Structure formats: C-alpha cells, structure tokens
Amino acid sequence: MSKIRIIDVATLANVSKSTVSQYLNGRFGHMSTQTKERIRDAVETLNYIPNPIARSLKSDKTKTIGVIVRDITGFNTSRILRGIDDFCKKWI
Q1: In 10 A of CB 50, how many CB atoms?
Q2: Which of 15, 1, 12 is nearest to 46 (CA)?
Q3: From CA 88, how far away is CA 30, in angstroms rounded?
Q4: Distance between CA atoms of residues 35 and 13, nearest Å
Q5: What is the pLDDT of residue 6?
Q6: What confidence score (pLDDT) does residue 70 get?
Q7: Using CA atoms, how far apart are residues 46 and 38, in angstroms rounded to an integer?
Q8: Model's pTM, two decimal places?
Q9: 8, 39, 47, 82 - which has most CB atoms within 10 Å?
Q10: Which of 4, 71, 74 is nearest to 42 (CA)?
Q11: H or E element, residue 45
Q12: What is d(CA 79, CA 81) in angstroms, rounded to the nearest whole number?
C-alpha cells in the first residue's frame, strides 16, 4: 500500500493542499466549520500521519539528537542511550 499524502487528503476533502496544510498547522483563520470537518474526516478516514522528515525540512527543526559512542555493543552504552531516549520522550 502506498503512503497517504497531503494531496490524497485534499482530494477526499475537496479542498486544496494549502488548505489541508493550514488545517494541520492549526491556522483556521479563514476556514469555515464545514471545511474543517471535511478535512478532519478525510484525515481520519485515510489515517493520515504527517511525515516528520518533510515537516523538519520546512521548519528547520529535526528534533534529532546525535550521540557519538566508542562501542555501540557495550552494556553501559545501551543503558546510556536508553536513558537519553527516555529523558527525551518526556519532553515530546
């Protein structure tokens, strides 16, 4: 099955890609209640999930942390990486 794209949501909701983008980013200023409902229904029907990599290209924020380790197979290394992961998930 192919990935669901923003154009698929727009087509199903009978709106433009730009309108769907505005909806996904919480900018409802010039959007009618019916349009919001159609987009919400299309997102739910298609089970659309925005691509975080594509979003990071637009926002210049990747939400990625780089960790340099000497030996990834070590017991302590895996515990430290797990701790970093657990800590970061608290801030999401």
Answers
A1: 13
A2: 12
A3: 36
A4: 8
A5: 93
A6: 86
A7: 12
A8: 0.64
A9: 39
A10: 4
A11: helix 33-46
A12: 6
Tens digits of per-residue pLDDT, 19-74? 999 999 889 888 999 999 999 999 999 999 988 787 778 777 777 889 998 888 88
Q: How far is CA 47 from the centre of its chain?
A: 12
What is the C-alpha to C-alpha distance for residues 18 and 35, in angstroms, rounded to an integer?
13
Amino acid at 10: A
CB 31 within 8 A of CB 47: no
- Specify the residue for token string 């197979």: 73
pLDDT band at 1 (very low <50, low <70, confident <90, very high): low
Q: How far is C-alpha 21 from the geometric centre of its chain's CA atoms? A: 12
DSSP labels, 3-68? PP-HHHHHHHHTS-HHHHHHHHTT--TT--HHHHHHHHHHHHHHT----HHHHHHHHS--------
Rounded Cα–Cα distance for residues 85 and 5 (Å):
29
- Phi-psi map region of 63: left, alpha, beta (phi>0 left; psi -120 to 50 alpha): left
